[in-house]
Amino acid sequence: MAIQKKKTRPNIVFILCDNVGWGDFSCYGGSISTPRIDKLASEGIRFNNYTVESQCTPTRTAIMTGRQSVRCGTYKVVMPGQGETGIVSWEYTIAELLSDAGYATSLWGKWHLGEVEGRLPNDQGFDEWWGYKNSVDEAGWTSYATFRALAKAKGIETPKIWKGKKGQKSTAVRELNTEVRPLLDELIVGKATDFIKRAAAGDKPFFTYIALSHLHPPEKAHPDFDQTDPSRLGTYADLIAEMDYRVGQIVDCVDATGIADKTLIVFSSDNAAGLMKVSPPGGSNGPFRGNFFTPPWEGSMRVPAMARWSGKVPAGVVTEEMLSAHDWYKTFAALAGASDKVPTDRPMDGVDASKFLLGQSEKTGRETLLFFGPDGSLMSSKWLNVKAVFRHTEGIDQPMLDTQFPIFFDLGSDPGERYNLFDTKLDMGWMFGVAYQAIAEYEKSLAQYPNIKPGGEFNGYKTALPKSA
Description:
This protein is an alpha/beta fold and 469 residues long. It has two domains: 11-367, Alkaline Phosphatase, subunit A (3-Layer(aba) Sandwich); 369-448, Arylsulfatase, C-terminal domain. The protein has twelve helices and 14 strands. The protein has helices spanning 35-42, 56-65, 69-72, 94-100, 145-154, 184-200, 235-256, 298-301, 327-335, 354-357, 421-424, 430-448, and strands at residues 11-17, 45-51, 104-110, 128-132, 160-165, 171-175, 206-211, 263-269, 305-308, 317-324, 368-372, 378-383, 386-392, 401-410. The protein has a ten-stranded mixed beta sheet with strand order 6-5-4-3-7-1-8-9-2-10, sandwiched between helices. Strand 13 and strand 14 form a beta hairpin. The longest helix is centred in the middle third of the chain and has 22 residues, at 235-256.
């Protein structure tokens, strides 16, 4: 009887930066030098058509659950002090799935999926974590005398950095303020690389989620990068330069521990560049229309992403194949040999792109994408390069606008979404069928599996989906 070779289960290092645009890295045409990120991209697959959700919490929900955030009740950012918000404990995160499959798990940096006990990383499948519960804008709070006085008078807890272990309560370790702000990514990466070294010496595969703080205001450059190179004129460039260095530190740690051929490294952004008139100004969303605050234009949803697994993921690949933040869940499960652990009692919106990553298929398996806004409404539907827009907004202080007639674009010819096909042609009616097919499937699923309402708890549905769902 032939002995079957045991399938390699990779370690997974998932690096997520905050609000970095499609065109910010030099391998995507950016003008800031990013040699380490460029090298990482060249050693694996670089995605030109990778999309996320509308804000930080929704995208992180997609990564953690493999589901549209509107299904999870997390379609907009978690605001501090709201209590039981974020993903409910019933959700089965990718950290829980991999933990149940025998992986060591950790999170370093930003969470933003719930701030109360029961909804923190160590309650959602992570063996250990160190970071901040919500968003790094809280680092600026104590710089206001008014807030300091309010916090003292009302007994409000000032923003903190936290740590926790599975089965234990999380504890505060230091203040999250403007003093620590420029040092955050150095601290996050230091914690992460320490974990990688420990885990590499262990007997388990590991999953570590490294959620960097840059480029989210308030910002301040690390002293080692603050105007230390005459080729960089402003703070935005200095921050990108530090990010490039930090990503290089993580890659070097993987390589130095001798586990490059056992480790999948994924690097992407959670949202597009905001292009706000705040410090630091800057950022590029490439040739695409709009920015972080103007969903559902491509510039609000399309961001950089790349994947490397030495000897497994083909090197030097640049692809236009679609992939979304929802797809990492089933992909990681398949690579870990744990597809049987993917839930069947709820709609799952991701696809398994593992064969594409391994060079065994020319297709990722994703052809359509529904995009929901921060109000939970459907804003657009994409099929390959056909995009239908039903609602849109032109800024953070602007209303959501319904279109009189759905707007259709050919993204292959018009990535800037400037030319509505129905302005000049009336023979494009077939596009309605393409756009509405995915919508019909989504609406059909709602009849049996209604979306979870924001806040509160949820204990599950009474029926299970078939295995093929």
